[in-house]
Design goal:
Length: 612
């Protein structure tokens, strides 16, 4: 390992060389500046890298004649250069980038990296960025290192012996930080919905930004989470400090968090320094879908620029303009989908440009590239709820996604879906979701060792309601409907699930079976504006009775009715239906006999809740 001088650059970077620059917060800025001072001797150089923090002087106009940048992931400093034609963008799955170096597709002449100081055995570490840097070090003909006393020493596959470093420049410098404003209410609501999908004992992959931070904040009451992620940010760090992420139940590397790079605040860099519970590995390992899938309950959480009504995800471009990169999104979505009880989630605000543009679109904008196919994504989350896509038809996907689009754009989206025959002609009303359930549209219920979801019925639940109906025996049908009904065609089912939830109410309790949801109970009321009251109706599947599901459902309906200022709920109940009569009494109501001998009236007088 030789100390670097300015004269050395002529022998290190020869005309036509391909030079790799280290990643993220470990970008060796002092080393790059040292090289650029010798610009006059640099001829026809190609610089390659993924995302780097800080300025990117090598991409400036004044260096264009002799230096060409080729980036696998575009940050704001490189984006304009690429879209102006002064730099290149190479799309590639992150886990495959190392093989471009090691297999000679993009052979490297020089790797410029940043490392921690060597220990007594002469071993440096790659610090906060192992990702594709490790492969670059294995592949490059020469390694030039910026040795920084402020670079954390990290564990995992991070060691680089001084024997492998050809030249070094010792410069002490603070690592660049990434900080975000506090998430607004929209982003916090997205975080809460994502957190609903995460079960205790899950292993997480999250990125960086306001949405990942909001998700992590919403996970603070979860238990025994693990981490296998390409990156580590401040949000997961806080969960580690709180003991929420403890990796106790990880099926892979129990007790350890697996990442490939860290990016965030100084507190994060201090946290990872000599932290034996966090292990850094190369991207070909952390981002390999096969390795990711070995984690049970793997949950991948990524964002997007657009999602179309069929589920195609746009992440790296806006029209013909390139914006970021493929990165690790597909790596982790596919790994999570292959994982036992895994979940692949796309989370994003419903609009962009101050609410003037919908992120849920009929089709991607012209020129826009699809990063994640419609066959990969399981869930899409906005501030308006969760769309479940896996196993759903195009019709159901369109309706699910319209449901979580911003209300200003729902009719336009539905009109487009109808014009393309993606939904039947009878589906003419836009979904009208609610947020009356604990400030959200849904909540989890634990019963009999199983997880249930209580939420409003969606138009896409048409088939679920059909299946629910045909699961009833004739006694249940007679008790619920009061007459013999023999079938439930799709149009009738649609009318029952497509309810104006701001006026009437249609709630259901679903049992989750992965992305699939099976209805076990339905409760609804029909508003009578003249009396400021509503008529209720219930049905619970035979197999899930006596679990308290009906009580939970009725209590939620009463709570919503009180919030909306209704004076009473009432319903006509078969005299033979003693369980329903008992439920009315349990909810504080009374049973009133009427002239019709076959039915009685159940009535519940409502007083507004103190917090309504």
């Amino acid at each position: 390992m030789n100390p670097l001088t300015e004269q050395d650059w002529k022998s290190i970077v020869k005309p036509g060389s391909r030079v790799f620059i280290g990643s993220g917060a470990a970008c060796p800025h002092a080393l790059v500046d040292h090289m650029l001072r010798q610009y006059a001797s640099l001829k026809d150089i190609e610089i390659v890298h993924i995302l780097t923090l800080g300025d990117c002087p090598w991409a400036r106009f004044e260096y264009e004649r002799n230096i060409r940048t080729n980036s696998f992931f575009l940050g704001p400093q490189i984006r304009d250069s690429v879209n102006q034609g002064r730099a290149d963008y190479t799309p590639c799955f992150l886990f495959e980038i190392p093989s471009l170096f090691t297999r000679g597709t993009l052979p490297l002449d020089v790797a410029l990296i940043q490392v921690s100081p060597p220990d007594d055995n002469g071993n440096c570490t790659l610090g906060v960025s192992v990702d594709v840097v490790a492969a670059a070090c294995r592949s490059a003909n020469k390694i030039v290192a910026q040795v920084n006393a402020n670079m954390p020493r990290t564990y995992g596959e991070t060691v680089l012996s001084v024997d492998h470093i050809d030249y070094f420049l010792e410069v002490e410098a603070d690592l660049p930080e990434v900080k975000f404003n506090q998430p607004d209410e929209t982003v916090q609501q997205i975080g809460r919905y994502v957190a609903q999908l995460v079960e205790d004992g899950s292993t997480l992959q999250v990125g960086i930004g306001q949405i990942p931070n909001a998700v992590c904040a919403a996970l603070k009451n979860h238990n025994d989470l693990g981490m296998h992620s390409e990156m580590l940010g401040d949000g997961p760090m806080e969960l580690m400090k709180a003991g929420v992420i403890n990796n106790k139940q990880r099926s892979m590397s129990p007790g350890k968090s697996t990442v490939s790079f860290a990016m965030g605040s100084r507190a994060l860099y201090e946290f990872v320094h000599e932290n034996t519970e966090i292990e850094f590995y190369p991207s070909e390992y952390t981002n390999n879908p096969v390795q990711i899938a070995l984690n049970q309950k793997m949950v991948s959480i990524n964002s997007a620029l657009q999602v179309d009504l069929t589920g195609q995800v746009v992440s790296d471009s806006i029209g013909h303009a390139f914006y970021s990169g493929i990165g690790g999104q597909v790596d982790f979505i596919r790994g999570a989908a292959l994982s036992a009880e895994g979940k692949a989630i796309i989370a994003m605000p419903s609009t962009a440009l101050s609410g003037t543009v919908s992120r849920i679109v009929p089709h991607p904008d012209e020129g826009t590239g699809v990063v994640t196919s419609r066959g990969d994504v399981q869930y899409v989350v906005t501030e308006f709820g969760v769309a479940t896509l896996r196993g759903r038809s195009i019709r159901e996907r369109a309706l699910e996604l319209i449901q979580i689009a911003h209300p200003d754009f729902r009719q336009e989206l539905l009109n487009c879906a109808r014009s393309r025959n993606w939904v039947p002609a009878y589906q003419f009303d836009t979904p009208k979701p609610i947020d009356d359930i604990e400030g959200m549209e849904s909540k989890k219920i634990a019963r009999d060792g199983a997880t249930f979801i209580l939420r409003a019925l969606h138009p896409s639940d048409e088939r679920c309601l059909q299946e629910f109906f045909y699961s009833h025996n004739q006694s249940t049908i007679h008790m619920r409907y009061g007459y013999e009904i023999k079938d439930m065609d799709r149009e009738r089912a649609y009318r029952l699930v497509n309810v104006d939830q701001k006026q009437d109410l249609a709630l259901a309790v679903f049992q989750t079976q992965g992305p699939r949801q099976v209805i076990h109970a339905v409760g609804r009321y029909y508003l009578d504006p003249a009396e400021n009251s509503a008529e209720f109706a219930f049905v619970v599947s035979e197999e899930k009775r006596r679990l308290g599901i009906a009580s939970e459902l009725f209590a939620q309906m009463i709570h919503i009715a009180k919030k909306r200022g209704l004076k009473s709920l009432w319903g006509m109940i078969s005299r033979a239906n003693q369980p329903m009569q008992e439920l009315v009494r349990k909810m504080g109501g009374r049973i009133v006999a009427i002239d019709n001998e076959s039915v009685v009236e159940g009535r519940i007088a409502l007083e507004p809740d103190a917090d309504a």
